[in-house]
From TrEMBL:
Domain named VWFC: residues: 79-145
Main location: secreted
Domain IGFBP N-terminal: 1-75
Protein family (similarity comment): Belongs to the CCN family.
Gene name for this UniProt entry: Wisp2
Protein's UniProt name: CCN family member 5
Subcellular location: Secreted
Function: May play an important role in modulating bone turnover. Promotes the adhesion of osteoblast cells and inhibits the binding of fibrinogen to integrin receptors. In addition, inhibits osteocalcin production.
Keywords carried by this UniProt record: Cell adhesion, Disulfide bond, Secreted, Signal
Entry GO terms, CC: extracellular matrix; extracellular space; nucleus
Species of provenance: Melanocharis versteri (Fan-tailed berrypecker)
InterPro entries, A to Z: CCN, Growth_fac_rcpt_cys_sf, IGFBP-like, Insulin_GF-bd_Cys-rich_CS, TSP1_CCN, TSP1_rpt, TSP1_rpt_sf, VWF_dom
GO terms, biological process: cell adhesion; positive regulation of cell differentiation; signal transduction
Domain of life: Eukaryota
Length: 222
């Protein structure tokens, strides 16, 4: 009945097809007559203005208040995940930043770091290694910082100071915190640091939580 009311025969379509925004392909409208731009996730839709089925989208009327139109959404039977306000399909691989790569799995997501988490310890030829951000590069890199000469001069001049032959004065040093071990709920992040009373390198941990875990669905009797 809807098709008979809205679809005119024969079809009358514009001579030039519309120019679609990026990510919106040309598809046939709901009548199967004219080519239109497929509606994307979150955009309004109806019988004529169809959603992009290649992205697994359908016209969702369930969340539309009475008297208002529907919007394009993923099918209910398809698991997905939401990261930073954007929805991803189950199995889809994405990069929230250039430093990590994630995959949407069963409503959650797993991430792996794309930057090496190696640790560079002080050595005689590089007593002050430091990890810094390099302009134009995503991953931080290790550099050998020059020895702080003015600290040694102050140490020599101070009465009762430690011997100037001390080659490795203790300076605070540590790696960046790793990614959280859990995709939802409480997990932990680790780093290597010498920020302790003995100035020794040790692995430190702290609690972290990326997002709360979704509530389990209530069990219904058979």
């Amino acid at each position: 009945q809807v098709c008979a009311q809205l679809c005119r025969r024969p079809c009358y379509c514009p001579w030039v097809p519309p120019r679609c925004p990026r990510g919106s392909p040309l598809v046939l409208d709901g009548c199967g007559c004219c080519k239109i731009c497929a509606r994307r996730l979150g955009e309004p839709c109806d019988f004529l203005n169809v959603c992009d089925q290649s992205q697994g989208l359908v016209c969702d009327y369930s969340s539309a208040p009475a008297g208002t139109g529907a919007t394009c959404n993923f099918e209910d039977d398809e698991e997905g995940c939401e990261v930073n306000g954007r929805l991803y399909r189950d199995g889809e691989v994405f990069q929230p930043s250039c430093k990590i790569q994630c995959q949407c799995l069963d409503g959650g997501f797993n991430c792996i770091p794309l930057c090496q988490e190696d640790v560079r310890l002080p050595t005689p030829d590089c007593p002050y290694p430091r990890r810094v951000e390099i302009p134009g590069k995503c991953c931080p890199e290790w550099i050998c910082e020059a020895q702080d000469q003015h600290l040694l001069r102050d140490a020599r001049a101070a009465p009762g100071a430690a011997s100037p032959l001390l080659r490795y004065p203790c300076q605070e040093w540590g790696t960046e915190w790793s990614a959280c071990s859990a995709t939802c709920g409480l997990g932990f992040a680790t780093r290597v640091s010498n920020q302790n009373r003995y100035c020794r390198l040790e692995t430190q941990r702290r609690l972290c939580m990326l997002r709360p875990c979704p509530a389990l669905p209530a069990a219904f009797p058979a």
